[in-house]
Amino acid sequence: MTSKYLRSGVLIVALSVTLSTIAEAQTSQKKIVSNGTIAGVLVGAIAVVVIVAYVVVHESTKKRTITGCVTPEANGMSVTDEKDKRSYVLSGNTADIKAGDRLTLRGKKIKSTDTGRPVVWETKTVSKDFGLCRPAA
Fold first, then answer.
1. CATH code assigned to 64-132
2. Cα–Cα nearest to 52, from 17, 24, 10, 94
3. Which of 13, 41, 48, 137 is deepest in the core (most CB within 10 A)?
4. Domain map of the chain by residue range?
């Protein structure tokens, strides 16, 4: 919703600057850079800053998920992500998680400062439940 208004605002500013040229009398002095060129450069620079800011905000708030089979551990449960093959110890909202199920979990990775400790996945919600895991062939 915000990006729709953002695009509309940038378009309005760009059109306003482009269409609002000032009529000047012709003189014998020649300008090196016209006001329109300066305005165009400013609008372009502002557009680049807005686009970069939008991408940074969008990437930082993007929903992170992992998918894999949940296995019981001595201190709780863990899941091995099917994409990166890394094992994560589960924490956070694990009430709906059962060992032996294949799930897609939404949350975030928490890196441990201790090198001997495993990586923790702080679960926010169960995004998709695929049912029981199939045994490896």
1. 2.40.50
2. 10
3. 13
4. 2-60, 64-132
